[in-house]
Queue: 2 jobs
Job 1
Amino acid sequence: MTANGCKTESRLERVLREGHFAVTAEVGPPKSASSKGITRHAAAIKEVADAINLTDNQTAIVRLCSLAAAVHVLQAGGEPVMQVTCRDRNRIAIQSDLLGAYSLGVRNVLCLSGDHISFGNHPQARTVYDLDSVQLVKLVHDMREHRRFQNGEEIKVAPPRFFIGAAENPFADPVEFRALRLAKKVKAGADFIQTQAVFDVDRFARFMQVVRDMGLDQQVFILAGIVPTRSAKALERTATVPGMVVPQELIDRMKGAADQEKEGVAIAVELISRLREIPGVRGVHIMAIAWEEIVPEIVKQAGLLPRPRVELATPA
Amino acid sequence: MVDDGAGALTAERPGGDVAEREARFEPKIVAFCCYYCAYSAADLAGSMRLQYPPNVRLIEVPCSGRVDPALLLRALEEGADGVYVAGCMEGDCHFQQGNFRAKRRVGAVKRLLAQIGWEPERVEMYNVPASDGARFAQVAREFTERIRQLGPNPARGRKVRS
Amino acid sequence: MIIAEQKPIPEIAAQVRQCRRVLVLGCGGCVTVCQAGGEKEAEILASALRLMGVREGWDTQFDAAAITRQCDPEYLEGIARKVAEYDCILSLGCGVGVNFLAERFRRTWVVPGLNTKGAGATLEAGVWEERCLACGDCILHLTGGICPITRCSKSLLNGPCGGSQGGKCEISPEVACGWQLIYDRLKELDRLDLLLEIREPKDWSRTHDGGLRRVVKEEARL
């Protein structure tokens, strides 16, 4: 552990441990071998977010890998969170990627199960799922805290020491189990959580009550997810995605708005301010996939600028 | 029945034109009829002196549910131009579900025939109440006509099974 | 039982139409139960192929037969003499049967008439569903008897992913969420504590990933 209580060199960890309300944002890598888009988004977002998530072949569609995307973000001066799913890689490839990512400067990972292969554009590919997300969290944790590979073998030199994230969907079923699953991830070693998109704040608040009753908010940094919506149609589509709960009043609001994009931003900003009020919520995670350019506007209107400047602490 | 020498069986109709007879294909139809309903209706049609085509050979079965795809296909292999199964009205099967099984099996055979390049219309499922001799005769007439339009079974006269 | 489904007839036909004499061989085991390749199905398929041959002008002879099982050498010996009369066996056994026939009848072309779909059970007449992926390391005592490898689309071991909604898996409303099933069962049996334990990564070397599996019971050897 470093002198300031940080377990890693992650800037995101530093922001959270210093007590700031964190802002993270997501960038979806392209279906091409060009880094231009990532670099452009990173340049715009790095000033308004404490860290930038790079998705890992989201919805099982082949995209530029999150490892390379994370490095492009580093080169643009941003702080990446490399997302890792269990769908496409076995434990050998994952550990190998973790070593590689860390060697290139990546300091945050988000551990996910991953959307099922059938959603994507290569549904006939072999599904891996050698590990699940809980096992992945533990794997990354053990590399850091115990200097061990998954097989127990010691990492003799330069073990990767990531700030470890996991996801949780408070709106998925079985509802009564969600907080318990979160507890499992915390027990496995998760440092921070980014939740699935919240549209129903009251329901999320009830979830957070259970989380607080279990003392989990003291053990892990929870960032609530936001997906800004640019049209009523988009919001209606979102409502049909498994695991998403969208109150009808939001859909009606979008439908009745003269400028739907503007209304979408307003809704996102309102959601952020309501989420900030919930004890235990330590930040917000903005997932504006395919609308990354709107992130600075949202963060600004939500009154979350300027972002705190943190110095990279030297390891103790 | 008279074999006209070209593989088609024609009914000898007194006073009919020979050329016309020779030009007309006379289908060979096999009908599996259940004892409780369809075969009774056939008997009734007979005693009511209702005419139905002699092309139809009846095979009595205890229940239409006795008929399975292998039998229907075998009939076609043996040279039948068309095969149908006649059972009780739905809900009235003496053995409860027999006619539903028959219906599903006839459906499966139709799909199979389509896969192998044969006309699914060569097999059919009918429901005929025991008391309806007229319906029995009507079914026999309709199906015979349908098969007449379709033409002869290409397996006619050939040894298909070894 | 092993569950399987007959291949579409045109696909089967393409495999056999070049042969002169084809033995359509059914199996009295699992495929009879799931009505894919039993004696009856062999008869029907042979009939269908004959009728198809009439239309297509094939010169191929199709005969149907069935043996008790295609996965035991004794039953294969029983038809050895008959097989000698054919140049092709269209096996309606599961993949095991096809393999075994090919190993035994080296000069006969053996082709599959079925697609084997796993180890499953009968849900109702006419409906069979997979229940076991033969992972070689059964942990069903930890999940109330419901298999997370098979019933969870992602084979997760530590509970449902975020895509579980209304008891259904994210991939389709027709697919139950395996972990919801496990949760419900453990709740009924008051053993939810089992779900709080962290399950370690699975030893996949006990599946086929570790190589072709063989089971030996020494005291059963002659």
Note: Residues 1-13 of chain B have pLDDT under 50 and may be disordered.
Job 2
Amino acid sequence: MNDLPRTGEDHARSPYEPELGDFESTPGDEETVNKTGTTTVGIATEDAVVIATDMRASLGGRFVSNKDVQKVKQIHPTAALTLVGSVGGAQSFIRSLRAESSLYETRRGKPMDIPALSTLAGNLARGGPFRAIRPILGGVDDEGSHVYSIDPAGGVMADDYTVTGSGMQLAYGVLENDYTPDLSTEEATSLSARAVEAAVERDTGSGNGVFLATVTDDGVDIRGHKDFEEVR
Amino acid sequence: MQGNSQQQAYDRGITIFSPDGRLYQVEYAREAVSRGTASVGVRTPDGVVLGAVRRVRSPLMERSSVEKLHKADDHVGIASAGHVADARQLIDFARRRAQTERLRYDEAIPIETLTKSVTDHIQQYTQTGGARPFGVALLVGGISDGEPRLFETDPSGTPYEWQATAVGGDREAIQSVLEEGYSEDLDLEEGIGLALRGLAATNDELSADGVEIATIDAETESFETVSTETVEEHLAEIGGESDE
């Protein structure tokens, strides 16, 4: 009975793998591949999540290989993920999460809740070849707003605000000074931009502007700004 | 099987269409279901009731070894009618599928999703050479997002959702009792009463240890077996009504 035709859901798949597509086992991402050095910030407010990311891709933080990278992407009707670490690993991770979340919604008539999406993301990070990524996941569902940081071993940690990437200490300095639990979405947006700006000033892996994403019940809005003046 | 030799070609071994579009193996599997003792399900706003008759062939047999109600996960129960051995395979499939949902998403599986996974699995056995369809029908009851849900699976692999229904022998007789007694505002206790009246419709000597009743309460979202004493009280009430 091992050769039943494949119809419907693939129950034989491990929960640590995507239902669609295979994870190829690749050797560790070398120093020379594009990395996003990066500073990415996520803050949960009452009914939204704001995410800010810098725009630089670099080779080991020593050479700027791209000055206009959008490091926050929509992966679900009301959730976004940041690219941190290996660009290839992060892009493939995003493709898998998009496919899985779309399949879930089409089959069941309702999108995945954000905690479920974070569990799935942790499972894929753990089972997959994404050794060098450290994304932030932010999203909104019936229960409210959620921010998680995800590590390459599949660790998933919820928080009110979080930072990942090479400029994290600099960004945290700003957040620890100015974060309060009652921030409005506008205030949080400005704070996240200032946190990325601080990192851009001193971290060689971060720079070239900021992308800001606002996730609400209505969806995900992402805008790029070369000039921090516009968003401070 | 007495039909002409042409018909015989379509009802042996593999499941293939007859010229008039029928799948005899699936129809025979439905026949196997209707030879089994009945199981009922009743959905109320407070939860789902599942019930089944236990057929014991000899007084020496341990009644508790006849299992027709199964817990599939904390919030899901499954009642079966038809081949017990086939039912056990599907129950285990459902249990594994329910835990996969927790592994994958850290969530309790929705009842509709679980039912459709099971029916997709059943369907595969109607389209595969060398396989035989499952000779069993299931009632899958439980709570999703706080809402009680009740589904039926049949040997073709089609899912149906019900307010109250029966599978197995004398299904029509039980269904008409359910249709008569059902209302959308039953509480869980009244649901148990209706399930037992349904089962009693085709069994004059229904005794408390001859039936199994379980509930999945919308509040607690947990599968609980109803005690023999409680079933006895309900049966006494039903007996009282019919004496009047």
Note: Chain B has one domain: 35-55+65-243.
